[in-house]
Amino acid sequence: MRHRPGTFSIAVRDREADAFGAAVTTGTVAVGATCPYVSRNAAVLTQSYTRTEHGRDAVARADAGERVDDALSDLLAADEHAAYRQVHGVGTGSEFTFTGDECVDWCGSRVGDDYTVAGNMLAGPEVLEETAAAYEAGGGDVAERLVAALEAGEAAGGDDRGELSAALLVWAPEPTLYHNLRVDCSETPVADLRAVLEEARTARERIRAETDDAFDGEYPPELLDFGVKY
After folding, report:
1. How many whole angstroms from its chain centre is CA 64?
2. Going from the N-terminus, what domains does the chain have, and what CATH number goes with each?
3. Largest CA distance in the chain
4. Strands 19-26, 180-183: parallel, antiparallel or unpaired by DSSP?
5. The sheet that has 42-48: what strands, in order across it?
6. Average pLDDT per consecutive 10 residues, the chain (230 residues; last block may be shorter)
7. Which of 158, 161, 192 lies closest to 5, judged by CA?
8. For a Cys-Cys bond, which of 43, 72, 83, 113 suits 102, CB 3.0-4.6 Å?
9. What's the pLDDT at 4?
10. What pTM was computed for the model?
11. What InterPro entries is this protein classified in (predicted)?
């Protein structure tokens, strides 16, 4: 197995679905445990030398009414090791990216309408360009577009020395099985994330059909998704 720290990720706001989402892949294990954070008002990722408090506190402050760019700027200003951080995200009224001077090349970010992408230790800027282009051009729901964006970034070179883990995290008014997915240690984490997404979609439809049969078409909505028979 390879163990490398390079990372690229995307944070988005889907206005139509009233959702926020994040997707990330990296050369170390279990990226979903520390890098992506989402809430009803923001999606934030903290990477390079990750500081989990930046993601956690930024989305909490966004939920309290603060702009995500103001929240992250304030958090970084108080961080004596900010030069080693890479942080980015999107809120209800702003986008934000920051790449510290001590992040390893190739590193950088892009800002689009209601999304941000960023990465470090990448094959080159084309990784983020293709990630952004795929998200902009993608169809389907926010989960589909996020995974497609990671696939495009990986195809453009991705982490300069390969990936080991990947994650998808979405906040939506109606959460579902495929809004919180992780591949923690794999030689092909992005491909595996795609497979998990498709399996979760299939499982959700199967659960819906089984619940519908059990309640003669009058199933209680609260039994679906996270409340159903695990």
Report:
1. 21
2. 7-227 (3.60.20.10)
3. 61
4. unpaired
5. 36-39, 42-48, 85-91, 95-99
6. 67 97 96 97 97 98 98 98 98 96 96 97 95 95 98 86 89 94 97 97 82 63 52
7. 161
8. 83
9. 43
10. 0.90
11. DUF1028, Ntn_hydrolases_N
